[in-house]
Amino acid sequence: MFDPKAFIENSIEEIRKTVGKSRVISACSGGVDSTVATYLVHKAVGEELVAVFIDDGLRREGEPEFVVRVLKDFGIKNRLIDAKAAFFAVFKGKTDAEEKRKAFREKFYRTLGQVAKEEKIDYIVQGTIKADVIETVKGIKSQHNVLSQIGINPEIYGYKILEPLRDLFKPDVRKMGRELGLPSEITERMPFPGPALSLRVLGEVTPERVAIVRKATEIVEEETRHLNVFQSFAVLHNDKATGIKNGQRLYGDIITVRVVDSEDAVAAKATQIANESLRKIALRITQEIPTVVRCLYDITDKPPATIEFE
Length: 310
Ligand code: XMP
Description:
Layout: H1 4-19, E1 24-27, H2 32-45, E2 49-55, H3 63-74, E3 77-82, H4 84-91, H5 97-119, E4 123-125, H6 130-137, E5 160-162, H7 170-179, H8 184-187, H9 207-224, E6 231-245, E7 248-261, E8 269-270, H10 275-288, E9 292-297
Parallel strand pairs: 1-2, 1-4, 2-3, 4-5, 7-9
Antiparallel strand pairs: 6-7, 7-8
The structure holds xanthosine-5'-monophosphate.
């Protein structure tokens, strides 16, 4: 049985031993894992920690403001790095899923490397958990936050990495967060991938295409909130379909809605949703997003599908 209290005490001791008197930064996206990791390290080293939120232009509506508010509420020093243009530049012309992941990862670590240099630190904290490592090592996909496990030495970016949650699965991370006294708006948050909406824009990631999927995501989240599912989101296809808007034929965008139940993301079931709810989602997405003419619902479990499309 996982004992969050004992785990927290041991981790704090280990973190203090590892980093000594040096300062650290933490890559905090606002997700459960990175926020719990950030809070844990803050408990261990206090003022020596600066949490860094990278605004890569791929986050959900209102997310940068939300994360900064949470960090401020926790009394954690923080910096918001506006890297939107830099991230969109590296995605230019890339359509292959793994190439996009690689481009994101490279930019992510280079951006952190820059901050590490400015802040003169040796260690960066990350919220990597066991599922990230397992899937990457198995070659299912290269999670953006797994480096040494795939043979990349993080020191090429100019720092070492601290991963206090690397041996835990998501349910235990939530237990830790509750034990640490974090609010439920953090501990019960839906998982959200590090490379964010870039995984949900199939094909090229552009500001315009991210804006479409961001709006669709907002609608899906609003309409499924009452279901308390593991994850719910929208995906923009790299394809077009025929539809009719304002009485005119429109060769427009296709959105897939994905809602899944899962314990730890290793396996998942497509959620059965009442038809009226699905129809409302489709109606809102096609009415509120001018370019979308078609809305699909994904009924595939994991396996054989994965939760994300890329
Ligand atoms: P898949 O798509 O592999 O996703 O079934 C399993 C869980 O991991 C999330 N996910 C990621 N999280 N970096 C992350 O931090 C990533 O690169 C990444 N890819 C997938 C996904 O949302 C799901 O919860």
